[in-house]
Amino acid sequence: MADSDTQRAILLLSCPDTRGIVAEVSYFITTYNGNILDSQQHSDPDTRTFFMRVEWDLAEFTIPAGKIASAFEPIAEKYAMDWRIEFSSRQHRMAIFVSQYDHCLYDLILRNREGETHADIRCVIGNHGKMQEIADIFDIPFYHMKVTKSNKAEVEKQQLDILEKEQIDVIVLARYMQILSDDFVSHYPNQIINIHHSFLPAFIGAKPYHQAYQRGVKIIGATSHYVTADLDEGPIIAQDVARISHRDSVKNLVARGRDLEKLVLTRAVKLHLEHRILPYGNKTVVFD
Ligand SMILES: Nc1nc2c(c(=O)[nH]1)N[C@@H](CN(C=O)c1ccc(C(=O)N[C@@H](CCC(=O)O)C(=O)O)cc1)CN2
């Protein structure tokens, strides 16, 4: 029986839907003595696209990790798959971007320290200096880079240099209040995770709680999504909501929203780190 320390392989694939894919993928794994621990699939009726995530224990797998992809290649070609293989032993290298709100930053760091998530948090980058003291508590390098309309391009270049130096492969915007340029985003496709403090697609852009209050809504929400050039319109990963009423002020909405934002962002980050998300177009298949 696999325990949490056993190295596991995760195969993620999408391809035109047809019969026999699950059987052939499972046969490939079991032929080489792999023990399948989790297997999920979805067939999208609109696009007739098949999606699959299968995870198996490598303890007695007879193909070395570095040669699994080449061994699987013929099956991938046969079904015209878009696919990748990940390993549980590879730890993500994470950068967290912040502005002036600390709740999501604290939550991400503490849950990672508790072992709820398993990332190597390499740095925090803030356009305000307020969060430096939090990064210092946890001995995480903090880069304060003030952003103005005139220096935004230069700051983004400096940010990209840091991300490259640190070999970052996942960026979390923990209430980071600067819109990233198309160029910046293009460097990290489906690798930048944002928490937007509304139930998208409602209230895109700045100050969604103020927008919700003015609209008189009875539910507020939080949405975590991959960041694209289109503000707050990237593939949605996770959402949650809370009921509110006419008795709630904007201040109440902000307070109620903080808990939602933390839970939704951590859920999305955990799903990403465990390779449970398959983006397609502007949607996602989430194998949770
Ligand atoms: N390219 C993208 N960048 C960012 C996204 C995104 O979806 N695509 N999400 C935002 C986060 N966000 C809402 O969740 C958001 C942040 C900031 C703004 C905004 O209008 N910012 C102003 C400056 C505000 C300030 O200086 O305090 C601006 O950039 O001109 C709207 C929505 C993160 N980035």
From TrEMBL:
It is an enzyme of class 3 (hydrolase). InterPro entries: ACT-like_dom_sf, ACT_dom, Formyl-FH4-Hydrolase_C, Formyl_transf_N, Formyl_transf_N_sf, PurU, PurU_ACT. Pathway: Purine metabolism; IMP biosynthesis via de novo pathway; formate from 10-formyl-5,6,7,8-tetrahydrofolate: step 1/1. It comes from the Bacteria. It catalyses: (6R)-10-formyltetrahydrofolate + H2O = (6S)-5,6,7,8-tetrahydrofolate + formate + H(+). Its EC number is 3.5.1.10. GO terms for molecular function: formyltetrahydrofolate deformylase activity. Keywords: Hydrolase, One-carbon metabolism, Purine biosynthesis. GO terms for biological process: 'de novo' IMP biosynthetic process; one-carbon metabolic process. Transmembrane segments: none annotated. Pfam families: Formyl_trans_N. Residues 10-90 form the ACT domain. The active site is at D232. Catalyzes the hydrolysis of 10-formyltetrahydrofolate (formyl-FH4) to formate and tetrahydrofolate (FH4). Belongs to the PurU family. This is Formyltetrahydrofolate deformylase. It comes from Salinispira pacifica.
